[in-house]
Structure formats: C-alpha cells, structure tokens
Specification:
Shape: flat
Oligomer: single chain
Number of strands: 0
Largest sheet: none
Structural class: mainly alpha
Distance between the termini: 47 Å
Pfam families: Coat_F
Protein name: Coat F domain-containing protein
Strand content: under 5%
Number of domains: 1
Radius of gyration: 17 Å
Number of helices: 3
Helix content: over 70%
C-alpha cells in the first residue's frame, strides 16, 4: 500500500466520520449532545481539509474548474425554486 492509497483511505474515513457527526448534530436530543457532536464535526472537518490540502499539494487530489456558464445555470435553477 503506497502513501497515496493510505491518504485516500484516510480522506474517505474522515469524510464518513463527518457524515456521522453531522447527523448526530442534527438529531441531538439535548443542547449538550448537540454541542458535543458539533465540536467533533468541526474538528473532523478541519482534519479533512488538512488531508485534502496535503493530497492536493502532491497532485493526488485534483479538481477541475467549473465553467462559469454551468455555475450560472445551476444558480438560476435554484433561484427559481
């Protein structure tokens, strides 16, 4: 298993944790539980961002720039809702 594969796995696990913490935050029955999940979510989002930045710096996670025309089209679709 090479470094890229390890980082991809870390990113996927971290994204999964973010999803779980988000749902925990939304479904929290009390403010204390809500705050605990919210804190965990924010910490995990920071970890996810760090992993993404490291992968991006190595060229292991590339994104392509969206065309402005496509962005405008989507914005207009949501504006009409």
């Amino acid at each position: 298993m090479d470094d890229k594969c390890i980082m991809e796995n870390l990113l996927n696990v971290t994204k999964g944790a973010c999803d779980l913490y988000l749902h925990g935050t939304i479904e929290s029955p009390t403010m204390n539980v809500h705050q605990a999940f919210d804190n965990a979510l924010n910490d995990t989002l920071c970890m996810q961002d760090d992993i993404y930045k490291k992968m991006s710096a190595k060229g292991w996670y590339t994104t392509e720039q969206a065309e402005q025309q496509k962005i405008s089209k989507i914005k207009n679709q949501f504006a009409g809702m």
